[in-house]
Design brief:
The structure is a single chain. This protein is mostly helical. It has 11 helices and 2 strands; from the N terminus they run ββααααααααααα. A two-stranded antiparallel ribbon has the order 1-2. Keywords: Glycosidase, Hydrolase, Metal-binding, Zinc.
């Protein structure tokens, strides 16, 4: 089975999952997935959306993205951190988002944790990228079957985020954040985006200063490989 497909219009080879659904998935693959995100709001939005996706397909969340942005103040950490817990009831009435109480409440909880993190460790961007040494990983996955759902790095970062008060940040969610936000170039090696994101120009000029060290994690159990791409979630 080929690892990439062309959609028939531009002939570009892509990660196989990008052409299995509607054009929205292909656009997400081409224009966003795997491009390094280093600002707090961008990382926070992706973390919240990956948490909302838990147990659902990524397309379900992607089609509701603008509704999420409207519901959660554009994922502005300071605004959300000041919202009282009573706002959860109001958000549960919003048909544009997934109306799961725990997932909605976690956005407010995580905003408060992200604001504290600025004072404690330089912010979410410093913690996430610091754990990565400031440089995107280039694992060179030959096909989607080799893209893991979780890794030792996501296990360690998940543990650190939970220690700092974040919720809905399990290892699979964190690895999804890492691939979506460009900490890992998870495009398959024959995808046209892989080479672009592996080029020196796609990498940061200087690494982000590391936050508090993240301890090593135990090896990821068998069975977590091959489900770490948006089209398989």
């Amino acid at each position: 089975m080929p690892t990439t497909d062309a959609d028939g219009s531009d002939g570009l080879p892509r990660c196989a999952w990008a052409n299995r659904g509607p054009a929205l998935m292909r656009e997400y693959h081409d224009r966003e997935w795997g491009i390094p995100v280093r600002d707090e709001r961008g990382l926070f939005e992706r973390l919240c959306l990956e948490g909302a996706q838990a147990g659902l397909s990524w397309l379900t969340i992607l089609t509701r993205r603008e509704a999420y942005r409207a519901a959660f103040a554009g994922f502005d950490v300071d605004i959300l951190a000041d919202w009282p817990d009573s706002r959860v009831e109001e958000l549960l009435a919003d048909s544009g988002i997934i109306r799961n109480r725990a997932k909605i409440a976690s956005v407010l909880t995580n905003a408060r944790a992200a604001r504290r993190l600025r004072e404690e460790a330089g912010g979410l961007d410093a913690l996430v990228w610091g754990a990565n040494g400031g440089v995107p990983e280039q694992p060179g996955y030959p096909d989607v079957a080799h893209v893991p759902a979780a890794t030792a790095a996501s296990e360690a970062l998940s543990k650190e985020l939970r220690r700092r008060g974040f919720r809905f940040v399990g290892p699979v969610i964190v690895e999804s954040l890492r691939t979506a936000a460009g900490l890992v170039n998870a495009h398959t090696t024959d995808c046209f985006r892989h080479a672009e994101l592996a080029a020196p120009a796609a990498r940061p000029a200087a690494p982000v200063a590391p936050a508090a060290p993240v301890s090593a994690a135990a090896p990821v159990p068998a069975g977590t490989v091959g489900t770490g791409v948006p089209g398989d979630r």
